[in-house]
Amino acid sequence: MLGNDLLKGELVYLNAITRDDVSQYAKWFADLELLQYLWMQPLFPLTLEDEMEWYDRMRKSDVYNFAIRTIDHIILIGSGGLRSIDWKNRSAELGISIGDSSYWGRGYGTDATRVLLRYGFLELNLNRIGLEVYGYNERAIKSYQKIGFRLEGTRRQALFREGRYYDTHLMAVLREEWQDSANAD
């Protein structure tokens, strides 16, 4: 697998985030329904200015962020990437968001996550890729388990949202587990 196929899945392909994409991200990240799945901070809609500042910081950082686009219509539907890369221990944290809710629950996030794992293991030579997911995001938990992520621990009642406390789960997949899972498909 060489060239552009490295960043291509069955439903999506990953490519660079451009300045033209930022206005779409600003629309998505102004939606509190989406934000509740992405971070622990108090929910607060982001603006186009916020996203432009993020874009400028991201372009200068050691984070591998990608735009997620559909293969069939080349529509921007989200973003995903690998961050907090520890080159000595060959590990990173994965983050993904499908901003266009009409693509939720249809396999696009799972496919994009598979492509990010392939990139992390085969191009960056990582050995472990982890993530954090909130207990109420059952759809994401099922997707991660299907791909091969395993539960490593739970931070009990670590997230306060809308008057309640929720658990956050730490999950990860090792390269050898990913290879076994990929070969089984």
Fold and architecture overview:
The chain has 185 residues and is α+β, with helices and mostly antiparallel strands. It has a single domain (3-184), classed as Aminopeptidase (3-Layer(aba) Sandwich), CATH 3.40.630.30. The chain has six helices and seven strands; from the N terminus they run E-H-H-H-E-E-E-H-E-H-E-E-H. It has helices spanning 22-28, 32-35, 48-59, 108-123, 138-147, 175-184, and strands at 12-15, 64-70, 76-86, 91-98, 128-134, 150-161, 164-174. The chain has a seven-stranded mixed β-sheet with strand order 1-2-3-4-5-7-6. Helix 1 packs across helix 3 (48-59). The mean pLDDT is 91.
- Taken as a percent bin, the fraction of beta residues is 25-35%
User: CATH top level?
Assistant: Alpha Beta
Q: Order of SSEs, N→C?
A: EHHHEEEHEHEEH
CATH topology: Aminopeptidase
Widest sheet: strand ordering = 1-2-3-4-5-7-6
CATH architecture: 3-Layer(aba) Sandwich
Q: Helix count?
A: 6
Mean pLDDT: 91
User: Low-confidence segments, ≥5 residues, pLDDT <50?
Assistant: none
Total strand count, please?
A: 7
State the end-to-end distance.
Answer: 16 Å
Gyration radius (Cα, Å) is 16 Å
Could you state the CATH homologous superfamily?
Answer: Gcn5-related N-acetyltransferase (GNAT)
Q: What is this entry, summarized?
A:
The model has no long low-confidence stretch (mean pLDDT 91). It contains six helices and seven strands. With 185 residues, it is of the alpha+beta class.
List the helices and strands and how they pair.
Blueprint: E1 12-15, H1 22-28, H2 32-35, H3 48-59, E2 64-70, E3 76-86, E4 91-98, H4 108-123, E5 128-134, H5 138-147, E6 150-161, E7 164-174, H6 175-184
Parallel strand pairs: 4-5
Antiparallel strand pairs: 1-2, 2-3, 3-4, 5-7, 6-7
Helix pairs in contact: 1-3, 4-5
